[in-house]
Design goal:
- The chain has two domains: about 1-50, Arc Repressor Mutant, subunit A (Orthogonal Bundle); about 60-185, Orthogonal Bundle (Tetracycline Repressor, domain 2).
- The chain is about 75% helix and about 0% strand.
- It has helices at about 10-25, 30-35, 40-45, 50-75, 80-95, 105-110, 115-140, 145-170, 175-185.
- The longest helix has 25 residues, at about 145-170.
- The N and C termini lie far apart (about 40 Å).
Length: about 190
Protein backbone atom coordinates (compact mmCIF):
# COMPACT_ATOMS: atom_id res chain seq x y z
CA UNK A 1 0.00 0.00 0.00
CA UNK A 2 1.43 3.34 -1.00
CA UNK A 3 1.46 5.96 1.72
CA UNK A 4 -0.08 8.44 -0.78
CA UNK A 5 -3.19 6.25 -0.89
CA UNK A 6 -3.78 6.64 2.82
CA UNK A 7 -5.70 9.31 4.71
CA UNK A 8 -3.61 11.89 6.55
CA UNK A 9 -4.38 10.17 9.85
CA UNK A 10 -3.31 6.79 8.46
CA UNK A 11 -0.15 8.30 6.92
CA UNK A 12 0.84 9.60 10.33
CA UNK A 13 -0.04 6.33 12.06
CA UNK A 14 1.79 4.18 9.49
CA UNK A 15 4.88 6.35 9.79
CA UNK A 16 4.77 6.27 13.60
CA UNK A 17 4.19 2.50 13.47
CA UNK A 18 7.36 2.00 11.46
CA UNK A 19 9.49 4.48 13.40
CA UNK A 20 8.38 3.52 16.90
CA UNK A 21 9.01 -0.15 16.14
CA UNK A 22 12.31 0.35 14.31
CA UNK A 23 13.96 3.01 16.45
CA UNK A 24 11.83 3.28 19.57
CA UNK A 25 9.48 5.80 21.10
CA UNK A 26 12.08 8.02 22.76
CA UNK A 27 14.31 8.27 19.68
CA UNK A 28 11.41 9.13 17.39
CA UNK A 29 10.61 12.81 17.38
CA UNK A 30 7.39 14.46 16.27
CA UNK A 31 9.29 16.43 13.61
CA UNK A 32 10.65 13.20 12.11
CA UNK A 33 7.16 11.71 11.97
CA UNK A 34 5.80 14.87 10.32
CA UNK A 35 8.61 14.94 7.77
CA UNK A 36 8.48 11.25 6.88
CA UNK A 37 4.68 11.17 6.76
CA UNK A 38 4.70 14.25 4.54
CA UNK A 39 2.06 16.07 6.58
CA UNK A 40 1.75 19.46 8.22
CA UNK A 41 2.36 19.81 11.96
CA UNK A 42 -1.21 21.07 12.38
CA UNK A 43 -2.49 17.88 10.73
CA UNK A 44 -0.59 15.69 13.16
CA UNK A 45 -1.90 17.59 16.17
CA UNK A 46 -5.41 17.64 14.74
CA UNK A 47 -5.47 13.84 14.65
CA UNK A 48 -3.22 13.17 17.65
CA UNK A 49 -3.13 15.91 20.33
CA UNK A 50 0.18 14.58 21.70
CA UNK A 51 2.95 12.09 21.01
CA UNK A 52 1.49 10.08 23.87
CA UNK A 53 -1.90 9.90 22.08
CA UNK A 54 -0.14 8.84 18.90
CA UNK A 55 1.64 6.09 20.83
CA UNK A 56 -1.65 4.80 22.24
CA UNK A 57 -3.02 4.53 18.70
CA UNK A 58 0.22 2.84 17.60
CA UNK A 59 -0.24 0.25 20.34
CA UNK A 60 -3.86 -0.33 19.31
CA UNK A 61 -2.74 -0.77 15.69
CA UNK A 62 0.01 -3.21 16.68
CA UNK A 63 -2.54 -5.31 18.58
CA UNK A 64 -4.96 -5.25 15.67
CA UNK A 65 -2.19 -6.35 13.29
CA UNK A 66 -1.15 -9.17 15.64
CA UNK A 67 -4.74 -10.27 16.17
CA UNK A 68 -5.38 -10.34 12.41
CA UNK A 69 -2.22 -12.36 11.80
CA UNK A 70 -3.14 -14.83 14.54
CA UNK A 71 -6.73 -15.24 13.31
CA UNK A 72 -5.48 -15.97 9.79
CA UNK A 73 -2.98 -18.45 11.17
CA UNK A 74 -5.71 -20.22 13.16
CA UNK A 75 -8.45 -19.96 10.51
CA UNK A 76 -8.91 -23.72 10.04
CA UNK A 77 -7.90 -24.86 13.52
CA UNK A 78 -10.77 -25.84 15.82
CA UNK A 79 -9.10 -27.86 18.59
CA UNK A 80 -8.26 -25.51 21.51
CA UNK A 81 -4.98 -27.32 22.35
CA UNK A 82 -3.90 -27.06 18.74
CA UNK A 83 -4.89 -23.37 18.69
CA UNK A 84 -2.61 -22.73 21.67
CA UNK A 85 0.27 -24.60 20.05
CA UNK A 86 -0.30 -22.83 16.73
CA UNK A 87 -0.28 -19.43 18.50
CA UNK A 88 3.34 -20.15 19.51
CA UNK A 89 4.12 -21.11 15.91
CA UNK A 90 2.46 -17.90 14.71
CA UNK A 91 4.58 -15.88 17.16
CA UNK A 92 7.68 -17.63 15.83
CA UNK A 93 6.78 -16.58 12.30
CA UNK A 94 6.13 -13.03 13.51
CA UNK A 95 9.52 -12.91 15.25
CA UNK A 96 11.34 -14.08 12.14
CA UNK A 97 9.38 -11.64 9.95
CA UNK A 98 10.28 -8.73 12.27
CA UNK A 99 13.94 -9.80 12.51
CA UNK A 100 13.41 -10.65 16.18
CA UNK A 101 12.12 -7.18 17.01
CA UNK A 102 10.09 -8.61 19.87
CA UNK A 103 6.94 -7.35 21.51
CA UNK A 104 6.16 -3.74 20.64
CA UNK A 105 4.21 -3.28 23.87
CA UNK A 106 7.07 -4.40 26.11
CA UNK A 107 9.56 -2.37 24.11
CA UNK A 108 7.56 0.83 24.62
CA UNK A 109 7.17 0.24 28.36
CA UNK A 110 10.89 -0.55 28.72
CA UNK A 111 11.69 2.90 27.32
CA UNK A 112 9.61 4.78 29.87
CA UNK A 113 11.11 5.18 33.34
CA UNK A 114 8.19 7.44 34.30
CA UNK A 115 5.29 5.60 32.82
CA UNK A 116 2.60 7.44 30.99
CA UNK A 117 -0.75 6.34 32.40
CA UNK A 118 -2.40 6.34 28.94
CA UNK A 119 0.39 4.28 27.35
CA UNK A 120 0.68 1.93 30.32
CA UNK A 121 -3.09 1.32 30.32
CA UNK A 122 -3.04 0.50 26.60
CA UNK A 123 -0.11 -1.91 27.01
CA UNK A 124 -1.98 -3.67 29.83
CA UNK A 125 -5.16 -3.80 27.71
CA UNK A 126 -3.22 -5.40 24.84
CA UNK A 127 -1.51 -7.91 27.13
CA UNK A 128 -4.81 -8.80 28.79
CA UNK A 129 -6.36 -9.53 25.38
CA UNK A 130 -3.47 -11.89 24.66
CA UNK A 131 -3.88 -13.59 28.04
CA UNK A 132 -7.63 -13.89 27.48
CA UNK A 133 -6.97 -15.79 24.25
CA UNK A 134 -5.31 -18.53 26.32
CA UNK A 135 -8.06 -18.48 28.94
CA UNK A 136 -10.72 -18.88 26.22
CA UNK A 137 -8.89 -21.81 24.63
CA UNK A 138 -8.36 -23.59 27.95
CA UNK A 139 -12.02 -23.14 28.91
CA UNK A 140 -12.94 -25.00 25.71
CA UNK A 141 -10.70 -27.96 26.56
CA UNK A 142 -12.45 -31.00 27.96
CA UNK A 143 -11.34 -32.17 31.36
CA UNK A 144 -9.96 -28.84 32.58
CA UNK A 145 -11.11 -28.01 36.08
CA UNK A 146 -12.60 -24.52 36.38
CA UNK A 147 -10.16 -23.56 39.12
CA UNK A 148 -7.22 -24.62 37.00
CA UNK A 149 -8.18 -22.55 33.95
CA UNK A 150 -6.68 -19.28 35.17
CA UNK A 151 -3.53 -20.88 36.54
CA UNK A 152 -2.89 -22.84 33.36
CA UNK A 153 -3.64 -19.84 31.12
CA UNK A 154 -1.34 -17.62 33.16
CA UNK A 155 1.49 -20.15 32.95
CA UNK A 156 1.08 -20.49 29.20
CA UNK A 157 0.87 -16.73 28.76
CA UNK A 158 4.08 -16.28 30.77
CA UNK A 159 5.80 -18.84 28.56
CA UNK A 160 4.51 -17.06 25.45
CA UNK A 161 5.52 -13.60 26.63
CA UNK A 162 8.83 -14.66 28.16
CA UNK A 163 9.82 -16.66 25.11
CA UNK A 164 9.03 -13.66 22.91
CA UNK A 165 11.39 -11.51 24.95
CA UNK A 166 14.11 -14.15 25.02
CA UNK A 167 13.89 -14.62 21.25
CA UNK A 168 14.48 -10.88 20.93
CA UNK A 169 17.53 -11.14 23.21
CA UNK A 170 19.05 -14.19 21.50
CA UNK A 171 17.81 -13.30 18.01
CA UNK A 172 16.91 -16.95 17.65
CA UNK A 173 13.81 -19.15 17.98
CA UNK A 174 15.23 -21.62 20.50
CA UNK A 175 13.47 -19.95 23.49
CA UNK A 176 10.12 -20.24 21.69
CA UNK A 177 10.82 -23.88 20.87
CA UNK A 178 11.64 -24.55 24.53
CA UNK A 179 8.50 -22.71 25.66
CA UNK A 180 6.41 -24.75 23.25
CA UNK A 181 7.83 -27.99 24.69
CA UNK A 182 6.82 -26.80 28.16
CA UNK A 183 3.33 -25.87 26.91
CA UNK A 184 2.85 -29.32 25.42
CA UNK A 185 3.78 -30.84 28.79
CA UNK A 186 1.28 -28.57 30.55
CA UNK A 187 -1.49 -29.46 28.12
Amino acid sequence: MLIADLSVREQILETANRLFYEQGYNLTGINQIIEEAGVAKASLYYHFPSKEDLCVEYLKKRYKNWSTLLQRFLANVEDPKERIIKSFECRSKYLVDTHFGGCSYTRIIAEMPQRSVKINDQVIANKEKQRMFFIEQIKKMKGTRTVAVSDLANAIFLLFDGATMQCQVYRDLHPMKNALKAVKMLL
